[in-house]
Amino acid sequence: MNYETKEIKTKRLIMKRGKKEDYMKVYEYDYSELKGIDGIVKFVKKDLKKLELLFKNGMKKYFTKIKKGHMFDWIIYLNDSPIGNILTVDENIAKKEIEVSFNIHPSYWGRGYMPEALEGVIEYLYEIGYDNVICTYYDGNLKAKRVLDKLGFKPYKLLKDSFKSKNGNLVDEYKVIITKEDWFSRTGRLDQLKGLKNSF
């Protein structure tokens, strides 16, 4: 498996390695406050000091570390402006399975950018050899659920009472999955996938 974060293009977007300042823009707000947990969405500026520490040795070393950790990390660009981030957070080599996490700056919510970006990344992950892509969302994060439903993800695991919210409520964690076969079927290319399997 080649763990290089390569450039991916879609109709409107480009996903590629980001610069430090791009991460600062994308993570301007505290995403834990934007997920709708406890039914509340707050636009709270994030303390970026911890994020800056990730890049203290430079972007080249950061992406070398990402590669060694069998991860990928894309910043999403719209007309050269950073608007979001897609990264992988876990991998099961035996199952050819990888988990994807995603965030988009709230200024760009509701315009279909995240489904488009994820489509490009999912296509890439299947091309390089994965069979399953997993994503996670939490109680209250209806935006993430809608994105994943739109892309055809199906229920995979439910982790009850995964953590306690700031208001003291227990929050469930939902893991959803889309298989390569389901993805090719959804995009009308199941025959193409069968041809690929027969060629091995």
Describe the structure.
- The chain is α+β, with helices and mostly antiparallel strands and 200 residues long.
- The chain has a single domain, classed as 3-Layer(aba) Sandwich (Aminopeptidase), CATH 3.40.630.
- Helix content is 34%, strand content 30%.
- It contains 8 helices and 8 strands.
- It has an 8-stranded mixed β-sheet with strand order 1-2-3-4-5-6-8-7, with helices on both faces.
- A hairpin with a 4-residue loop joins strand 1 and strand 2 (14-16).
- The chain starts with 7 loop residues before the first strand and ends with a helix.
Give a short summary of the structure.
The chain is an alpha+beta fold. It has helices spanning 20-26, 31-34, 49-54, 59-68, 113-127, 142-150, 180-186, 190-198, and strands at residues 8-9, 14-16, 73-78, 81-92, 97-104, 132-138, 154-164, 170-179.
Q: What are its keywords?
A:
single chain; Aminopeptidase; 8-stranded mixed beta sheet; 34% helix; globular
Strand order of the largest sheet: 1-2-3-4-5-6-8-7
For the CA atoms, what is the radius of gyration? 17 Å
**Might you state the CATH topology name?**
Aminopeptidase
**Quantity of strands, as a count:** 8
Residue stretches low in confidence (pLDDT < 50, at least 5 long) are none
CATH architecture: 3-Layer(aba) Sandwich
Order of helices and strands, N to C? EEHHHHEEEHEHEEHH
Mean pLDDT: 91
Query: Structural class given helices, strands, pairing?
Result: alpha+beta
Identify the CATH class: Alpha Beta
